[in-house]
Amino acid sequence: MEPKINCNLCSRLAVLREKNKILYPNFYNDRVLGIGSLYSKLLIVGLAPGLRGANRTGKVFNGDFSGNLLFKFLKKYNISESYSEFEKISNINCRITNAVKCLPPNNKPNSFEIKKCNVFLSSEINKMKNLKIILTLGQISHNSTIIALNKNLSEYKFKHFKKHKINDQITLINCYHCSKYNINTKRLKISDLDDIFKLIKKLLHF
Ligand code: SF4
Q: How many angstroms separate the alpha carbon of residue 81 from the centre of ligand 1?
């Protein structure tokens, strides 16, 4: 199950989308679906499309700072074949999606929107029968993923670098979101991303 074009389950986000269609007529301005095979062993869950990133390009994590950084790491660790800022990412060996599929004001979806969109994240995860590792970027994506997995949030608290055993097959790893703000404030270091991707590679035996 995927959200329809112009999904209006969240009225605040639907209103913002209509405004952006006027302000930014060349932008994609719609819900952004996940990319990469549903048969992947690795799922990366971000927060929501950024105004000038996925909301502009229509591709998850594409076109802004956080996407460029994430895709560089996917290439560095051979999870994708190629990426440059001018070239599209190709042949990714993972699935990438967001907890909330539409652009929220100030990058902050509210609890209603997070809950409404969770049905789509849950459906996406349930289709991933080979799933072994989930990387959640930031607390909202972590909480949304735990809810989508039908687990209790009090037993699975977000902590940077923490590994959570979801079941015999799936391990969930927490990392701060690779946003420009987190990098500039050094909340997330580039070396942290190296450590996270080394761990993922080790766990997946890529
Ligand atoms: S955030 Fe999700 S549920 Fe809300 S309008 Fe967009 S696609 Fe629909």
A: 31
